[in-house]
Amino acid sequence: MNKELKKHIEKYLNSNTRYDNRKLTEFRKVSIEPDCIKTAEGSCRVKIGKTDVLVGVKFELGKPYPDKLDQGTITVNTELLPMSSPDFEPGPPGIDAIEIARVVDRGIRESGALDMKKLCVKKGELVWIVAIDICTLNHAGNILDAAGLAAIIALKTARYPSRKGENVDYKSLTKTKLSIKKTPIPITVLKIGKHFIVDPLVEEEKVLDSRLTITTTKDKKICSLQKAGDEPLSLEDIEKMIDLALEKSEEIRKIMKK
Amino acid sequence: MSYKKRVDGRDFHELRKIEAKVGIIPNARGSAYFKIGKTEAYSSVYGPRELYPSFLQDPTKAMLRCNYNMMPFSGSGDRVRPGPSRRSKEISMVTEKALLPVLDLDSYPNTVVDVFVELSQTDAGSRCAGICAASMALADAGIVMTDLISAVSVGKVDDKIVVDLDYEEEALDAEVSDIPVAMIPSTGEITLLQMDGIIDKKTLLNALKIIKEPLLKINEIQKKALKKKFEIQGAKK
Amino acid sequence: MNKSKLKVSDNDIVVPGELLAQGMNYLPSHGTYRLKENILSSKLGLVRIDGKVIKLIPLSGKYLPKKGDVIIGKIKDINFSGWRVETNSAYVAMLSMKDASSDYIPKGADLTKYFEVGDFILTKITNVTSQNLIDLSMKGPGLKKLNSGRIVIIDPTKVPRIIGKRGSMVSMIKNSTKCNIIVGQNGVIWIKGEPEDEYIASEAIKIIEKESHVSGLTNRINEFIKSEKVK
Q: Which of A104, A233, B100, C138 has the most CB atoms lying inside 10 A of its own CB?
């Protein structure tokens, strides 16, 4: 970690401001473009400031897991495309990409957002596999929150393709949408020095002490947690961070409604 | 057999609707977006920058490295498995060869210019859309180049020469040939030429003549998009 | 045959491959080339016509290291003999122990005491070889480690506009924002002041980067800073 950068970021936070003149707990402008990819069964592009993320949903037919014969599955994959930042390199997903995919996956799975039983075509034999792919177009910090938001909206826009036996006909989508019961929204809170901030810039991510991603549903239940960073968190810290996440997720929900 | 009317109702030599933008990826020094019909390509350029491993370095010029990739949800059928495939590797290579003739990379020995091409949705013609986007991104990045590169496919469906085939047209139960072409607009020279299908020499040469005008149209759209980046609202020159 | 004709005018924005002039009466200069009878552009740039000579002012591009330039570099790593420094160009430069300080640095000294990875330094290019191996030095007036400031990186082709005629533009920003500002020839800029002022200065610099080709820039920047300060 660069000490000079950290000192400088903290100087801003001490004056209650950020590199882009924001308040500590203020999000950048969030814009949502649902159903933007014609080749996907569901899709959404989310921009938070200059961060730009594209999520597409594809359906496949496959066999169920032996322990869940009457349920379909979801898979979440993140591609931190080298196009979107000089820091990203071509190649298989690294740990940063895997973490984003797994946190988004847990939020959707554990909230019960998706009725997995409805994805079953023939018990024990044929189920729908819903693949959620997150691709970055530009990385300007806070990819995780953007990806989580884009993923749940993409699922909401998704329609089943037609099925002929064990084959999928992607050319004709049916009118049937996925049954989405919950809307999990991940909010990542950073702790830098004694300060808590949301919607971090790349510079802030570089100097964080700890980070907690809290995914919550509309009824204020927590459905996924992910603590990262080198420093520990106290119980008071965690409480503050959860309150902040709940407050911010409400704001995001309001933007979603528009 | 005679092909009477195109599947989507276009004239035989008519391009699909095109949209082009420059500077869409703020992190990159050069970037562009090129959409033709439902095929949508993004491109960004990083470099010239240090090249590793160093045995790849060329002490006489910068190396051009293109990376063509389809996003997993960009195919019209099944999900595309992430990571390089034989197809994407070949397209990356022909994209490099299509762009190289106009680039002057002599000023930056031992370095690399990285060109990333990402397809977010495709409906045939993705390598050509990628090449169009990449050449705009290279210009945006300030790379010295004698010209842009414009690309589109031409082909034959039964007895007719058609421009800019889409996926449905490629898949017709007819005698179809599909020829992606890239051209240096100022000289008319060709830098990409591939073909799927069967065609005779006379028809091929005729097709390559016919495709020139649509390619010049694409070139105008590319130029316009590059200039548009520098228009400042409410300010005069 | 001898009909020479200009196809563009001064200050036009042109893109690679664009026809600038026809006929042999005109001469191609920087950023342009001759193709048979025609002169075409080989860069994205602004047209400058000087009598019969046509050249381009580039609108974007990488910094090409030049001997004598004072730049802002970032320490990339440390090795036995000194520091490797990022220069916002295509090449990493070398700062050797003997050029890093006016003090004598003994062999085996802890080099992080001088500069650590991630530090920004104001440094001078002392040599560039034909293969673009770059040597740096810290010996010279004002050359130093740049502490506690904000770094803004712009397109190096815009550096002359940020500085302005005889430093007028950067002085204006310094005075109106009360920030200390150092502009490296490589497009890396260091700003130090109060956080709000640093923000205004960095935004002003980004506007210049984006709009430098449009006239009336000084006024627009002046007005921008005034309006931001009211907020």
A: A104
Asked whether the beta carbons of residue A82 and residue B27 sit closer than 8 angstroms, the reply is no
Q: How many angstroms separate the CA of residue C20 from the nearest CA in chain B?
A: 12
Backbone angles phi, psi at B126, to 5 degrees: -75, -35
If one counts every other C-beta atom within 10 angstroms of the C-beta of residue A10, the result is: 15
Q: Residues, chain B, total?
A: 237
Residues B176-217 have pLDDT tens digits of: 999 999 999 999 999 999 999 999 999 999 999 999 999 999
Task: Provide the whole-model pTM.
Answer: 0.96
Residue B155 tokens read as 């082909």
Q: Are A97 and A151 in contact (CB under 8 A)?
A: no
Instruction: For residue range B104-118, list pLDDT tens digits in order.
Output: 999 899 999 999 999
Residue C215: count other Cβ atoms within 10 Å of its Cβ.
Answer: 12
Q: Tell me which residue has tokens 């997993």.
A: B72
Structural domains in chain B (count): 1
CA pair distance C37, C123, nearest whole angstrom = 46
- Kind and range of the H or E element at C230? helix C217-230
Query: In terms of Cα–Cα distance, which of B173, B32, B49, B176 is closest to B113?
Result: B49
> What pLDDT does A211 receive?
98
B160-163 sheet: strands from edge to edge? B160-163, B150-157, B176-184, B189-193
Residues of B in contact with C155 (CB under 8 A): 29, 142
Domains (ranges, CATH) in chain C? Answer: 5-58 (2.40.50.100), 70-146 (2.40.50.140), 150-230 (3.30.1370.10)
H-state helical runs in chain A: 3-14, 95-111, 143-157, 202-206, 235-257
Q: What is the mean pLDDT of chain B?
A: 95
Q: Residue B77 maps to which CATH number?
A: 3.30.230.70
Q: Which residues of A touch B (CB under 8 A)?
A: 37-40, 43, 50, 52, 54, 56-58, 60, 77, 79, 81-86, 90, 92-93, 131, 133, 135, 137-140, 168, 170-171
In a domain, residue B7? The reply is no
Query: Distance from A140 to chain B by nearest Cα, in Å?
Result: 8
Interface predicted TM-score (ipTM) = 0.95
Residue carrying structure tokens 């100097």? A207
* Ramachandran angles phi, psi of B229, nearest 5°: -55, -30
Q: Which residue of A has its CA nearest to B167?
A: A171
| Residue with the two structure tokens 């709000």 | C196
Residue A138 to chain C, least CA–CA distance (Å): 17
Mean pLDDT, to the nearest integer, of A192-218? Answer: 97
A79 contacts: CB under 8 Å, gap ≥ 6:
A93, A97, A133, A134, A135, A136, B71, B72, B82
* Six token digits for residue C38: 């025609």
Distances (CA, A) of B112 to B26, B31, B150, C91: 20, 17, 23, 11
Give backbone dihedrals phi and psi of B230, rounded to 5 degrees, phi first: -100, 5
As a whole number, mean pLDDT of residues B37-44 equals: 98
Sign of CA pseudo-dihedral B77, B80, B85, B87: positive
